[in-house]
Specification:
alpha+beta, 167 residues, four-stranded antiparallel sheet, 17% strand, 5 helices
């Protein structure tokens, strides 16, 4: 589109200097063609409106974290809300920072290890975690374990949302 506009501008300037340029009907025809091409693309869907109040944002960023077999008093079910931070999680501020750091546009924050990924056969222990709720306006239902190197890395990226266990 910008290339077409620069061509129109340069030809218009040449026309003013007495050289042959596009006539007005020709220019209208060229721009009409651009309009026809752009009109052929479907309109993008409207984005949802941002939350109307802080209480709506809290509902959108609320998680329940259930940890089992982690030992040393780390097992339990914790509630976590972010923006603003609240809940029974042992490190609300740290967990919210970790979630914010791991949230990227176009990438699923709680995505499982991709099928077919080559992972080291390193066992990180029997700990498991289940995270449910809503984060960044999307539903969350993710499970974590430490059954191999990829799963250990996935778990460790979520510390302190999940307890630090070491490798």
């Amino acid at each position: 589109m910008s290339r077409l506009l620069s061509q129109v501008r340069s030809r218009s300037a040449r026309s003013r200097q007495g050289r042959q340029g596009w006539s007005r009907p020709g220019l209208r025809g060229a721009l009409g063609g651009v309009t026809a091409v752009l009109g052929a693309f479907p309109a993008l869907p409207a984005l949802p409106a941002p939350p109307a109040s802080a209480s709506a944002a809290v509902r959108a960023d609320h998680l329940t974290v259930t940890v089992q077999h982690a030992g040393d008093g780390r097992d339990g079910t914790y509630e976590l809300s972010c923006h603003p931070g609240a809940g029974s999680h042992p490190d609300v501020a740290g967990a919210c920072r970790t979630l914010d750091r791991n949230t990227d546009w176009g990438r699923e924050t709680f995505a499982p290890v991709a099928p077919g990924t080559a992972c080291t056969m390193l066992y990180g222990g029997p700990a498991t975690a289940h995270v449910t709720g809503d984060w960044a306006g999307r539903p969350v239902d993710a499970t974590y374990d430490r059954s191999n190197g990829c799963e250990i890395g996935r778990w460790d990226r979520m510390v302190p949302l999940l307890p630090a266990l070491g490798s």
